[in-house]
Amino acid sequence: MSNDLMLIFMIAISLFVMQAVGGVFQIRNYKTAIRRVHKKGNVGIGQKRGKLFNGNIVIIACDCEQIITDCEIMDGKTFLAKFHQVDRLLGKNLKGVSIDELLKQLRSMEAKKQKQYRG
Question: What is the number of other CB atoms lying within 10 angstroms of the CB of residue 79?
């Protein structure tokens, strides 16, 4: 009985260590993505936490005239998810579109769609 308990304990510890190591890599990826996007303008960050699985983080850069210059999103279920470039969000090309226009489009959507794009 004690061998089985020891095995379960070792599995739990190894899963905990894997989660911690994965978190370190994900934070490193997050910081480099912010630095990369910040070179193109002021940065805004939004997130939508998943209840059990999927969540996303969106990083948007815009210039002093509120024109979006860059956008990246991290969408995934595990710590292996990485940021990728987004040229289209909400069916629109982000580069050259005002933030105010995107907010108007978001608010005109039905509530279910707004939840999907909340980040």
Answer: 16
